[in-house]
Amino acid sequence: MISLLTFPKGGVHPPDAKAQTSELSIELMPVPDELEIILGQHIGAPCTPTVAKRGEIQEGEIIGEVKKGLGVPLHAPVAGKIKDLGMSVHPMRVSAPSITITVNHAAEPRQYQAGEWQANDPKELLARVHAAGIIGIGGAGFPTHVKLSPPPDNPIDTLLLNGAECEPYITSDHRQMLEHAAEIVEGAKIILRILGIKQCNIGIESNKPDAILAMTEAARAGSTAEYSLTVNALQVKYPQGSEKQLIQAITGRKVPAMALPSAVGVVVHNVSTARAIRDAVVFGKPLYEKVVTIAGKGIARPANLLVKVGTKIGDIVNYLGGLKPDLAKIIMGGPMMGFAVSSLDIPVTKTTSAILFLTEEEIDTTPHSPCIRCGWCLEACPMGLEPKEIAIYVEANRPEDTAQFGVFECFECGSCAYVCPAKRPLVQFVRLAKMKAKR
Amino acid sequence: MWTVVACLIPPLLLSVFVFGIQVLFITAVSVMSCVAVEAVSQKLLGRRVTVRDGSAVITGMLLAFVIPPGVSPLLPLLGAIMAIYIGKHILGGIGYNIFNPALLGRSFLLASFPVAMTSAWLPPLKNMAIFSYLGDSVNAVTTATPLAVMKEQGIAAFTELFGSGASLYGTFFLGWRPGCIGETSGFLLVLGGLYLLYRGYITWHIPVSVLGSIALLSWIFGGESYFSGDPLLAILSGGALLGAFYMANDYVTCPTNKISQLVYGVGIGILTVMIRLKGGYPEGICYAILLMNPLSPVLDGWFKPRRFAPPLGGGR
Ligand code: SF4
Ligand code: SF4
After folding, report:
1. pLDDT at residue B266 in the model
2. At CB < 8 A and 24+ separation, what contacts does B190-195 make?
3. B307 interfaces chain A, CB cutoff of 8 Å
4. Residues A257, A221 contacting (CB under 8 angstroms)
5. What does the alpha-carbon distance between residue B206 and residue B211 come to, in Å, rounded to a whole number?
6. Do the Cβ atoms of B251 and A378 come within 8 Å?
7. Can you tell me the distance from the alpha carbon of A382 to that of A150, in angstroms, rounded to the nearest whole number?
8. Which of A166, A280, B183, B301 is the right S-S partner for A241, CB 3.0 to 4.6 Å?
9. At what angle do helices A271-283 and A181-195 cross, to 10 degrees?
10. In sequence order, what are the beta bridge partners of B293?
């Protein structure tokens, strides 16, 4: 048995809860009658609509663009008619501007033609990635073309594909690695060409042996004289899939505080982003569909669904047979890093990888109490921060003094809150501190 | 929390066999008063009542563990009020109290009832006659603790009373010696401590640094000449093991950072040996811990956890 790679400092072992959906193949959900597309899908300024109310649109047509800054264009997931340019409930913010589309069910799904990329200029490939509206699907939604154009003074030598999927419950990357291994590998090769490098390492947690097998095979088949792809099995430990932890586990390099992975010559992409890049470059197909894990004991039928961006939670619930009466909490994303949502009207965005419907028995509702200074959060924090101090300072109304405890290095993985015996909502305290301390 | 309680039960039961059934009574009074005082204090102060978390039960048991077995039940009752109301809820509240409540209770009792607290020792029972002390007046049977004998009468008297060599270690390890209710059985205390370590409730840093420094310093300074002390005896006598595994480790009052914990543990070790050898009391770990308690936040301020990686170009 080869030893499994991991990061040395901190980390926790929450129950992985993946068995509920890990065997469920990706299933195409029929398009609902209406989609609601949030204009701010990614980090940075939101798109401005390029369509008018009551206008007709085709599948894949651009409906929103960003004039300045980091943004990427937004595309219509279906053919239909613009019903409204208004506000919609947003998973994190209270509300956000959005485009509502009435779906034209009579229209045929658009067919895309495969094209060449092997000999094309990397710049042109990069432009295709941008034009397809690709953003980092696994995480915060950082525009992918920006990550693919690292600053020239940081030479890149390694591409890491993140297939760790360390969040409990979520299996959408797992299923894509099983069912679309070759496409992911092709996407990785496209990225390698854009970056002008040879080496790609694919990190997968060892609780997904079938995915490791499928990806190893695809990587072997895809490796050439030009491109070398390797799969690395990783220890099961949260947050293995966090960029800095993944880079350390696989390459042994440490990304300095407040710096990007390019500082140590690495670029990291999620496996599902690699697949989206492949669709974009080979077929010219924009990103407007998402594989989303629907799990938890509060939903009638768990599933891995391929849905259009803009599908509302409520439509998914109806398709899967409704909610169970003991539902206690809906979370977008995983239980560690996701956000609790309070409305079924919230639509899926490009970064949604899971929607969890959790019952009382799956969540902990004990009220939180004062810190007992056990120090477990210090042990758990993979960044070596002091979450307990951050929380105490925020409670004492001194958020501006939390930088000394590393609040800006916190990537809100939730390991600290997971181990806290006093059930303190440490991540919420960190978010508050970040908001207040910035000013 | 309840796991800690479970770890404290075997030493308590053993104590019943060593000192008699009244040990159970004293412990019960202590635990029940602690729980009651906690509930009442929290009600009075308008805070959420949290007696279900078991921490008051632990404080109650630990308080009983550090008082002599022959005292009147009034003492644990008063000690509980001091420990929980003053020590825990007035001096900070849950998580913010500076001093270990049980030890604060004990030092209060020691100051207020110096005679009872330093003389109500019972010699271990023969033949497990656990009810034999019940009728007697306590004064008729009191004895002295090994550390007191050693301090006041010298090593010769000590050897005469308690034997020497392997049989001495054996009796001390098992707990057949005079002492506070819960401190006598090294074996069961270590066993419980190891279980807590195994379950991850505590880490090795504090017990090892406390015991290590006590052993080292006692070896150097504890004998008639330098380097002739008995390190094993130093650990097995008095409350060293109880203190190292169950009191110095108290989450709220010890530092949170591993390096601070080592420094803190060594500090406790040094102070313990100093008090034992030079101070006015035969045993010192209680005061050593209380003296180090307020330094915990200071140590945590000095020693920070190691960050994942420093930022580029140095600086914060
Ligand atoms: S402080 Fe931040 S980085 Fe550290 S464990 Fe908590 S959430 Fe994760
Ligand atoms: S884990 Fe919770 S109780 Fe323990 S030190 Fe951290 S914040 Fe305090």
Report:
1. 94
2. B190/B241, B190/B245, B191/B10, B192/B7, B192/B8, B192/B10, B192/B11, B192/B245, B192/B246, B193/B7, B193/B241, B193/B244, B193/B245, B193/B246, B195/B3, B195/B7
3. yes
4. no
5. 8
6. no
7. 26
8. A166
9. 80
10. none
pTM of the model: 0.82
Token readout for A169 is: 């419950």
For ligand 2, residues with CB inside 6 Å are: A 371-377, 387-388, 391, 419-422, 424, 426; B 256
Pairing of strands A266-270, A158-163: parallel
pLDDT (tens digit per residue) in B215-237: 999 888 887 778 877 888 888 87
Rounded Cα distance between A301 and A291, Å, is 16
d(CA A342, CA A330): 7
Distance CA A273, CA A351 (A): 10
Phi, psi of B149 (to 5 degrees): -60, -45
Average pLDDT on A304-320 reads: 94
Listed residue (B188, B164, B166, B165) closest to B175, CA to CA: B188
Which one, of A413, A389, A414, lies nearest residue A403 by Cα? Answer: A389
Q: What residue type is A91 in one-letter code?
A: P
Residue B218 backbone phi and psi in degrees, to 5? -70, -35
Alpha carbon nearest to ligand 2 atom 4, residue: A374
Structure-token match 């811990």, residue found: B289
Going along chain A from its start, the domains and CATH numbers come out as: 11-30+113-365 (3.40.50.11540), 376-436 (no CATH)
- Give the H/E segment covering residue A434: helix A426-438
Helices (H), chain B: 2-19, 22-44, 55-65, 74-80, 101-112, 114-119, 146-162, 165-174, 186-198, 205-221, 231-236, 240-242, 258-278, 285-292, 296-302
Bridge partner list, A268: A160
Q: Which alpha helices (DSSP H) does A56-200 contain, by range?
A: 122-131, 144-147, 172-179, 181-195
**pLDDT tens digits, residue range B179-208?**
888 887 888 888 889 999 988 888 899 999
CA dist list (Å): B154 to A327, B84, B158, B228: 71, 38, 6, 14
What ipTM was estimated for this complex? Answer: 0.74
In chain B, which residues have their Cβ closer than 8 Å to the Cβ of A9? 306, 308
pLDDT in tens, B29-61: 999 999 999 999 988 888 888 888 888 999 999
Query: What are the structural domain ranges in chain B?
Result: 2-139, 145-177+202-302
Confidence of residue A1 (pLDDT cuts 50, 70, 90): very low
Q: Which residues pair with A143 in a beta bridge?
A: A135
CA–centroid distance for B271 within its chain: 14
* Candidate from B94, B296, B312 with C-beta closest to A370: B94
Rounded CA-CA distance A294/A290 in Å is 12
Tokens of A204: 């997968």
DSSP string for residues in A121-146: -HHHHHHHHHHTT-B-TTTT--BHHH
> Mean pLDDT, chain A, as a whole number?
89
Range from A114-128, A173-187, A346-360, B129-143 carrying the lowest mean pLDDT: B129-143
Q: What is the DSSP letter of B311?
A: B
The per-residue pLDDT for B315 is 43
